[in-house]
Each structure stands twice: as structure tokens, then as C-alpha cells.
């Protein structure tokens, strides 16, 4: 039997890649909601640290580098043991919780009955919270970070300030998950011709994608790839009329911010992604080889994305935009 009154210090051991980290924010949000007075720490990989800085949901951010030596890892374990955490939520499913010696911790056995990774993370709280679900109230950005993002957007935009804008995220963690540049260009031209402003987003590693795409789009577009911080990106995304993204961190971010989102899938099994709800649409070609969930394509060309026509993505966008224009649609 768990005595919740004794839980004063909580550690969440989250994941490393930004998209995976975003999928764990519902867990962190629920812990803050149910334990508002607890000291809540997050242990995260180096890439995810900026995501938690200036975040009101957590009290402390600790770095876990999986490339660290065993000696440095042992030092981290001893450091964490000295804090005397009452509860450890280990979303990496490692032995760390047991090494830290907390009063309560997640089981090393995971319930994988639900294919959605988000749902699997939430089920890790079932020993602690009776119904681990609800609205994600994670502090993704501050008012200042949102204002900064919108200012950067306006500085690079030729559109009127109050015009709705659509976010396009042409990048992804691997080229196998990226729809074609020509497809995104056709989509952008269509959206702009229909009276929308379009902004390109992504990280610094995707600068070349942004340059290639900008050259293929025949109309003015705001290119913010490599310009925004993670939390500024969240602030900008929260104001978008629509987000179109490959299977990427931007897609997960748009979902958690409850924005209308068109998600483009190639090798990924979309059943692992929560696409339920009127604000989400997934687009893919249904081929004999999809979804393969492989890190490398076994064919000479990745037909799942190379052959995906812009018309299918445009149709999904129009359906969501028309839904948003309906008075019954709620932001």
C-alpha cells in the first residue's frame, strides 16, 4: 500500500531523443498535478535538457549521458542516492530505480498491451495514480518564449500580422521518415495560394532541407529552421492553425499542444502514435511493405514516401482547416 503523504521527492528518468521526451510529458504533468508540493526532478539526456530549462512543471533537471563512462555513471547513482528520493519513475525501463533505493518505484516489467508509446508511459503510473490520464498541462513554453518565437516569425514574414499561419516541418530524425522536398513544396504553394501564411520549422541539422525547400516554393515563405529554441518552437506551434509534419518531434509536440495536425508516415507504424480525435489525421501509402518499422529500406527506393502524392496531404489539410472553420470546432 502506497502512502502518498510520504512522497516528497520524485525523480523521473525520461528518454533521450526529443520526440521520445515529448511523449513522456503527460507523465510529468500528472505527477505535478497529483503531487503539487513534491520536489520533482527529471533525469534526461543532453539533447532534452533545454526542453526542461525554464519549465515550471519541474524543479530540477539532471543530465544522464548514456555515452558516459561506468565510473561517471556510478558517481551519478551515488549522487542520486544521497538525495533520498521517495519515488522514482523510470521510463527507460532500466535498473536505475532499484540502484537509487527509493521507497517506491516503477516495476521493471512493462505493460505493452497498448501499442501507443504515450499510453505505455502513462500506464507506468498505475501503481501510484488510479487513473493515469487527462489533459497534458506540462509547461512547454513561457509567455516570453512564445512572444519571442512570434517576433522572429514576423521578422521573416511578408504576411499581415493577424493572418493564420501553418507550420510545416519537413525534417525528421532519419531520411527514411522524410517526405519529399517536392511534395512539401507543392503543399506550401497550395496553402499560400489559398490565403495562408506558411512557416518552416526544424533544428539546425535540417538547414539544408529548409534551403532546398525554400528554393522550390514559388511564393514567399518564412523559414525558421535552425532559428528557434525548442521552447520557442513549442510557443509558435501552440498558435498555428495547422501543423504538417513527418513522424518527428514536431509532430509529437503538435499533438501534445492539441493543434490540428497532419502526420505523414512512411516506415512508421502509425498505431504507435495516438491519432485519435478530430484534430489529427495521418497520411500514408498502403503498400505491401508498409509499415516496416525498419531502420533501413530493403528496397531500391522507398516508395512509401517517394510516391506519396501531394494531393493526399493537401486533402487531409483541407479537411482539418474546414473543420476548424466550423463554429463547433474548439481550439
Description of the structure:
By secondary structure, this protein is of the alpha/beta class. The chain folds into 2 domains: 120 residues, Glycogen Phosphorylase B (Rossmann fold, 3-Layer(aba) Sandwich), CATH 3.40.50.2000; 182 residues, 3-Layer(aba) Sandwich (Rossmann fold). The protein has 12 helices and 11 strands. The strands form 2 sheets. Strands 8-7-6-9-10-11 form a 6-stranded parallel beta sheet, sandwiched between helices. Strands 3-2-1-4-5 form a 5-stranded parallel beta sheet. Strand 7, helix 8 and strand 8 form a beta-alpha-beta unit. Helix 1 runs parallel beside helix 10, helix 6 packs across helix 9 and helix 7 crosses helix 8. The radius of gyration is 21 Å and the shape is globular. The two termini are 40 Å apart. The C terminus is likely disordered.
Discrete helix count = 12
Give the ordered list of helices and strands: EHEHEHEHEHHEHEHEHEHEEHH
The parts where pLDDT drops under 50 for at least 5 residues are 327-331
**CATH architectural name of the largest domain:** 3-Layer(aba) Sandwich
Strand order in the largest sheet: 8-7-6-9-10-11
Task: Write out the CATH superfamily name of the largest domain.
Answer: Glycogen Phosphorylase B
Shape, please? globular
CATH topology grouping of the largest domain = Rossmann fold
Largest sheet: 6 strands, parallel
Strand content: 5-15%
CATH classification, class level of the largest domain: Alpha Beta
- Report the count of strand segments: 11
Structural class: alpha/beta
Overall radius of gyration: 21 Å
Could you tell me how far the N terminus lies from the C terminus, measured between alpha carbons in angstroms? Answer: 40 Å
Integer count of domains: 2
Helical content (DSSP H or I, runs of 4+): 25-40%
Q: Mean pLDDT across all residues, rounded?
A: 92
Amino acid at each position: 500500500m502506497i502512502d502518498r503523504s510520504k512522497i516528497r521527492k520524485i525523480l523521473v528518468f525520461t528518454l533521450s531523443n526529443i520526440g521520445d521526451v515529448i511523449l513522456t510529458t503527460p507523465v510529468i504533468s500528472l505527477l505535478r498535478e497529483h503531487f503539487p508540493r513534491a520536489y520533482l526532478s527529471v533525469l534526461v539526456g543532453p539533447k532534452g535538457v533545454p526542453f526542461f530549462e525554464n519549465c515550471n512543471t519541474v524543479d530540477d533537471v539532471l543530465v544522464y549521458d548514456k555515452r558516459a563512462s561506468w565510473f561517471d555513471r556510478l558517481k551519478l547513482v551515488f549522487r542520486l542516492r544521497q538525495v533520498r528520493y521517495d519515488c522514482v519513475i523510470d521510463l527507460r525501463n532500466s535498473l536505475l530505480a532499484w540502484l537509487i533505493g527509493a521507497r517506491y518505484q516503477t516495476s521493471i516489467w512493462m505493460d505493452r498491451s497498448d501499442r501507443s508509446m504515450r499510453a505505455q508511459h502513462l500506464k507506468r503510473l498505475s501503481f501510484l495514480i488510479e487513473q493515469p490520464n487527462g489533459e497534458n498541462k506540462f509547461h512547454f513554453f513561457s509567455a516570453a518564449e512564445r512572444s519571442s518565437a512570434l517576433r522572429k516569425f514576423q521578422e521573416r514574414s511578408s504576411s499581415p500580422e493577424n493572418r493564420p499561419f501553418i507550420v510545416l516541418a519537413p525534417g525528421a530524425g532519419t531520411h527514411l521518415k522524410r517526405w519529399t522536398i517536392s511534395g512539401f513544396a507543392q503543399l506550401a504553394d497550395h496553402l499560400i495560394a489559398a490565403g495562408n501564411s506558411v512557416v518552416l520549422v526544424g533544428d539546425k541539422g535540417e538547414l539544408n532541407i529548409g534551403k532546398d525547400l525554400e528554393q522550390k516554393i514559388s511564393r514567399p515563405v518564412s523559414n525558421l529552421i535552425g532559428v528557434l529554441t525548442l521552447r520557442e518552437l513549442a510557443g509558435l506551434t501552440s498558435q498555428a492553425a495547422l501543423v504538417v509534419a513527418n513522424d518527428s518531434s514536431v509532430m509529437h509536440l503538435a499533438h501534445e499542444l492539441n493543434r490540428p495536425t497532419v502526420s505523414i508516415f512512411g516506415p512508421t507504424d502509425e498505431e504507435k502514435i495516438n491519432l485519435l480525435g478530430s484534430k489529427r489525421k495521418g497520411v500514408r501509402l498502403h503498400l505491401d511493405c508498409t509499415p516496416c518499422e525498419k531502420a533501413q529500406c530493403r528496397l531500391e527506393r522507398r516508395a512509401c514516401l517517394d510516391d506519396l502524392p501531394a494531393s493526399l496531404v493537401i486533402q487531409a489539410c483541407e479537411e482539418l482547416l474546414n473543420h476548424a472553420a466550423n463554429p463547433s470546432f474548439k481550439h
